[in-house]
Amino acid sequence: MPASAIQAHRDRAVIAGAVVLAGALSGCSATAPQDASTSTTTPTPEETAVAFAVTRAGVPITGTGAALQPGISFPVPEGDFRSLTLEVQCEGGAQYKIGIGEAMAPTQVQSGTCDGPTSFQWPLTSSIQESLTFVIFTEGVTWKITPLFSTAEFEADPAITVECDEYSTIYSSIFNADIGYAQYADIDETEWTRRIDAAADALDDLADASSTPLAEPFAEIVMILRSPQRVPGAMIMPTQSASSMVTEICGANQTQVSINADYGA
Asked: What is the helix (H) or strand (E) element at residue 134, kind and residue range?
C-alpha cells in the first residue's frame, strides 16, 4: 500500500474528489486497429482540476439519559477544518435538541426525533466553543453522537436565506401591529386589521412561491392570521409554534430571524 494511503487510513480521513477527463472519451466508437503506417498520435486527455475535501471522524459520544448539559468537550482536530457535522443515532421517537457552544442562539441549536440516524451541520469558526450540548426529552433513551470535521465550507441554502429575510420583515409587521394596538394604543382596530391582513397576504405569497421546508410553517401562520376567531392585538401567541419552526429552519441555515420593533427601549 502506498505511504500516502496508509497515512490517510491512520488519520481516518475520507477523501472525496473526482478528476474529470474531457475530450478523449467524447464521441468514441469501436473501430478496427489502424495500420502502423496510417496511425496518428492520440491527443493527451485534458484534465480538470478539483479540490479535495477531507472529513475526519471524532470520538463518538454515547449515553443513556436525558441530557448532556452544560456540555461535553469535543476538541477540533488539527487541520483546516471549516464545517462540523454531528450524526445522532437513537430510536423510539423521543424528541431532542442538539447544539454547539452554549447552544442558546437559533444558529447554534437544532432539533430532531429519535427515528434513526440524523445529521446536523454547522460552520466551524475561530470563535466556536469546543463543547456539545445534547438534551433529550425522554428518560432511558440510548443515543450515540459522532462528530465529523470537514475541510469543506458550510453551504447555506440561498433560497432559505432569502425567505428568512423576507419573513423577518413580515413578522416584524405582525409584532408591531399587536404591540401598537394592545400595549401602546398607538393604532386602532381598523389599522390593526389592515396591517395583519397585509402581512397574511405577503406571507401567503411567500408560502406559495417557496420550495423549501419553510412553506409549511408559513402556510400555518397564514391560516391563523386569517382565522375568523382571531383576537385584535393577540396574534403573537397563536403563531408562536409555527414561528418557532421558522426560526429553527432559518437557524440551521445560519440565517437569523430578526424583529424590527417600533416600540420599546
From this structure: strand 131-136
* Cell 466508437 -> residue: 29
Domains of the chain: 55-150 (2.60.120), 158-252 (no CATH)
CA 25 to the chain's CA centroid: 39
> Quick one: pLDDT band at residue 51, thresholds 50, 70, 90?
low
| Integer CA distances (angstroms), 165 to 42, 90, 120, 249, in order | 55, 34, 22, 12
- Count CA within 13 A, CB hemisphere, residue 155: 5
> What DSSP state is assigned to residue 221?
H
pLDDT at 49 over 50: no
CA distances from 206 to 158, 259, 263 (A): 15, 18, 26
Q: Closest Cα to residue 133, out of 66, 76, 78, 77?
A: 66
